[in-house]
Design goal:
single chain, 375 residues, Glucose Oxidase, domain 1, Rossmann fold, 2 domains, ten-stranded mixed β-sheet
Length: 375
């Protein structure tokens, strides 16, 4: 298939289409991850994102039935320099092309992803149209310009669960490979009752939280605080998610009530909503943080960790002065807020994803210890 990728600034890229025959609109974001394309495609945080992969070749190890972060692809499309048509890996069950077709998602290869990445870095987030249906350059540009974008949009409501459910932790264990135990850590006990507010939770995030000693029940993003209080949890967890956090003011108001009664942890979008609950504001990042190489410094210890992040928005540091939260961690690259803590309540948030830190779940372990002390 012939494919076109057009941006709202009028620039157009032509290449080879693969995946589904479809036309898709979304915000183009570049992702610096060298692997994990299946996880990225299915991560609810990437809802309405067109993923521009900076790594040279994508699809080398195919796709399998175990690595998805949700029940379907959530990204709007994929842009790669080169797609691998013949993957080679013992875990491979199907090609990336077949996976995209099954989910109705278009993709394009053979384009200069370095030039596209530089465009996004210089101009900031751009609305884009990706089509494998043979539309003209002019039509593709018009579609990109006409799309409403994600600013002010409550996308979390569209990827959140529809009703509460208990997270299945019957097969929670460390990742194993060929008999080699990468992690010998055992699941923490006793299990603590956790209410997770779903803004677009990743499967791996819930698994890591459960393995760190939590018995999780997941609630929709618009659940009233009163309903969760009836559940009588030991703690509250705010998941990562999609869209503009400023559209979640009502959720933040409910979370404020919960944080005053239960130890609370927010991750990704959850960190931003938690900050809003404490009186802070959020802001747009120029081109977001998308990938696994973001250095974060803990202000209390001085330690720097390389983290994985996936966010287009962040907590506005200037707004913290008039809130009940304090800055706890910063992104070394651009100074963005990477972690907050409440001044007096047992509540904190991190912008990065703890489960992606090479097997370390130190944030979840810290949360477990905090909740245990409060019981």
């Amino acid at each position: 298939m012939d494919a076109v990728l057009a941006f709202e600034d009028g620039s157009v890229y032509r290449g080879k289409g693969f995946g589904a025959a479809a036309t898709s609109l979304g915000e183009a974001v570049f992702n610096t991850s060298m692997m994990g394309y299946q996880e990225l495609l299915t991560d609810p945080s990437n809802y309405k994102n067109i993923l521009v992969m900076t790594f040279v070749e994508i699809g080398c190890y195919g796709v399998n039935g175990e690595d998805a972060e949700s029940g379907s692809i959530k990204a709007a499309g994929m842009v790669v320099a080169q797609d691998c048509e013949v993957p080679s890996n013992w875990r491979c069950e199907k090609t990336l092309d077949a996976y995209l077709k099954e989910n109705g998602v278009p993709a394009i290869s053979g384009v200069d992803t370095r030039a596209i990445t530089r465009k996004i870095r210089e101009k900031g987030a751009l609305k884009a149209c990706l089509s494998t249906e043979g539309i003209s350059d002019e039509e593709a540009v018009a579609k990109a310009k006409g799309w409403k974008g994600i600013d002010g949009e409550n996308l979390a409501a569209q990827v959140s669960c529809e009703k509460p459910f208990h997270f299945d932790d019957s097969d929670i264990k460390p990742f194993e490979l060929g008999g080699v135990h990468i992690s010998k850590k055992s699941r923490r006990e006793p299990l603590l009752k956790c209410a997770a507010i779903d803004f677009g939770a990743k499967e791996s995030m819930l698994k890591s939280l459960a393995f760190s000693g939590f018995d999780i029940t997941v609630f929709p993003s618009n659940t009233p605080a009163q309903e969760i209080e009836k559940f009588s949890p030991d703690c509250v967890f705010l998941t990562s998610g999609a869209g503009d956090p400023s559209a979640l003011a009502s959720a933040a108001a409910q979370i404020k009530k919960l944080a005053e009664k239960f130890p609370t942890l927010g991750v990704g979008m959850g960190c931003q909503v938690l900050a809003m609950a404490f009186g802070a504001k959020t802001k747009r990042l120029p081109f977001g943080h998308h990938g696994g190489n973001h250095p974060v410094r803990n202000l209390a210890t001085g330690k720097v960790r390389i983290t994985a992040q996936n966010n287009a928005f962040a907590v506005d540091e200037n707004s913290l002065a008039n809130s009940d939260a304090v800055l706890a961690e910063v992104n070394v690259t651009d100074g963005a807020v990477a972690g907050i803590r409440h001044k007096s309540l047992p509540a904190f948030g991190v912008q990065y994803h703890p489960e992606d830190l090479t097997g370390e779940d130190f944030v979840f372990d810290e949360f477990y210890d905090l909740v245990q002390k409060r019981k």
